[in-house]
Amino acid sequence: MAIQVTLISHSPDPLRSLYMAYRTCYSQLTPKQILDRIGDDRITDAQMRQFIEERLKTGHASPLEQVWFEFGISGVSRAFSHQFVRHRVGISFEQQSQRYVTYKEGEFPFTVPETVRKAGMAPQMEELFGRVAQLYEEMVAAGIPAEDARFLLPNATNTNFKITVNFQSLLHICDLRLCTRAQWEFRKVAALMRSEVMKVVPELGKYLQPKCGELRMGYCDESEKDWAACPIGRVRPHKDALFRLYDAHRRGELAPLGEAEFAVIEEHDLVEPR
Ligand SMILES: Cc1cc2nc3c(=O)[nH]c(=O)nc-3n(C[C@H](O)[C@H](O)[C@H](O)COP(=O)(O)OP(=O)(O)OC[C@H]3O[C@@H](n4cnc5c(N)ncnc54)[C@H](O)[C@@H]3O)c2cc1C
Question: Which residues have CB under 8 Å from 175's CB, separation 6+?
Answer without folding.
Answer: 209, 210, 211, 216, 217
